[in-house]
């Protein structure tokens, strides 16, 4: 009789756990198909088998009832501790968020970098990919068509800028942030720079610190800088503000920067009346339209007209690349 009863309870507990999409804890504290707590089932099986080994039958006196309840309580406690130790039962909040990879593509009516046009006032198609980890590490690649290299006297074909970068950015204290990294500007193509200059490929390291919606950043050149040879130590110091207008999708921004060239070749340019150093500023506004960021920017510099950033095209047209410019842009990220 005892064997049949125990067997029935074993079957009932087994059916319950197989037919319910439940956690380990739920499985053992819910009732089985026979209307009995699964914990009761297991304890009764354990106690009945213990009694059989001693050659006696389970009795339902008061002492045995206390022993049964104590055994049941001990079993449930053990199951709870065991479940918490099982991988996958831990709370989902403990798992770090997965790394994020995003992409962006855009169009701009005039690609302006640090106040100087990179497309001689013409449109550009741009886009890139970014990877961001929960630790703060990030890396990415970005590209755009350009025309300033051949426009400044280089011969050959070079019309694509490709930037690669990596760094670490995080927040600290209250509303403070930092960003440190390395960026490489590469200009793909086969071309020969004018005499006295080198290819435009450039490497910079940078660091910034921010508070709420304002930040300051310093970029430091590690060698040749945008066709100027031996320009290690050339710096660009900038202050940026980007203020979001609450619940409107509109962000207004302001920028001021100072490009300062270093090195013997740069000093020679200054002596010849072609100082490449200058300051620039920009005002801009953007509006988010369901993932499409539309922007309008005005920029200008104090670069000398007729100086380093004034070029005459093959058609005889002279342009100041650092003059005031208005640019419309549309960028979509996904």
Topology summary:
Layout: H1 2-19, H2 24-29, H3 38-54, H4 62-85, E1 100-108, E2 112-113, E3 116-117, E4 124-132, E5 137-145, H5 148-151, E6 155-172, E7 176-192, E8 202-211, E9 214-221, E10 235-245, E11 250-260, H6 264-271, E12 278-289, E13 292-301, E14 310-312, E15 318-320, E16 325-333
Antiparallel strand pairs: 1-4, 1-16, 2-3, 4-5, 5-6, 6-7, 7-8, 8-9, 9-10, 10-11, 11-12, 12-13, 13-16, 14-15
**CATH architecture group name of the largest domain:** Beta Barrel
Radius of gyration: 35 Å
For CATH, the homologous superfamily of the largest domain is named as: monomeric porin ompg
Provide the β-strand percentage band.
Answer: 35-45%
Determine the CATH topology of the largest domain. Porin
Count of helix runs:
6
Strand order of the largest sheet: 1-4-5-6-7-8-9-10-11-12-13-16
Q: What class would the helix/strand composition place it in?
A: alpha+beta
Number of strands: 16
Overall geometry:
globular
Distance between the termini: 68 Å
SSE arrangement, N to C = HHHHEEEEEHEEEEEEHEEEEE
Mean pLDDT: 82
Q: Which CATH class of the largest domain applies here?
A: Mainly Beta
Largest sheet, if any?
Answer: 12 strands, antiparallel, barrel
Number of domains: 2
Give me some keywords for this one.
single chain; 16 strands; 334 residues; two-stranded antiparallel sheet; Porin; 43% strand; alpha+beta; twelve-stranded antiparallel β-barrel
């Amino acid at each position: 009789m005892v064997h049949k009863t125990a067997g029935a309870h074993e079957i009932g507990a087994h059916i319950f756990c197989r037919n319910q999409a439940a956690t380990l804890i739920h499985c053992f504290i819910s009732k089985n198909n026979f209307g009995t707590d699964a914990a009761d089932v297991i304890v009764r099986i354990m106690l009945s088998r213990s009694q059989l080994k001693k050659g006696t039958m389970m009795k339902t006196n008061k002492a045995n009832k206390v022993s049964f309840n104590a055994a049941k309580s001990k079993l449930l406690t053990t199951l709870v501790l065991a479940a918490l130790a099982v991988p996958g039962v831990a709370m989902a909040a403990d798992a770090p968020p997965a790394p994020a990879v995003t992409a962006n593509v855009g169009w701009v009516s005039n690609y302006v970098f640090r106040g100087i046009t990179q497309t001689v006032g013409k449109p550009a198609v741009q886009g890139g990919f970014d990877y961001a980890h929960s630790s703060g590490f990030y890396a990415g690649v970005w590209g755009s068509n350009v025309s300033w290299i051949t426009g400044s006297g280089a011969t050959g074909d070079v019309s694509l800028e490709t930037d690669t970068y990596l760094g670490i950015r995080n927040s600290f204290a209250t509303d403070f942030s930092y960003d440190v990294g390395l960026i490489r500007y590469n200009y793909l193509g086969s071309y020969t720079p004018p005499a006295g200059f080198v290819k435009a490929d450039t490497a910079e390291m940078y660091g910034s610190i921010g508070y709420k919606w304002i930040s300051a950043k310093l970029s430091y050149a590690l060698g040749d800088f945008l066709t100027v040879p031996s320009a290690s130590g050339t710096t660009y110091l900038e202050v940026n503000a980007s203020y979001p207008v609450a619940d409107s999708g509109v962000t207004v921004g302001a920028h001021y920067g100072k490009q300062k060239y270093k090195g013997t070749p740069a000093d020679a340019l200054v002596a010849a009346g072609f100082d490449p150093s200058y300051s620039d500023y920009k005002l801009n506004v953007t509006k988010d339209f369901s993932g499409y960021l539309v922007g309008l920017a005005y920029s200008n510099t104090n670069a000398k007209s007729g100086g380093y950033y004034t070029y005459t095209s093959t058609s005889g047209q002279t342009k100041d690349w650092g003059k005031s410019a208005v640019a419309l842009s549309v960028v979509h990220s996904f």
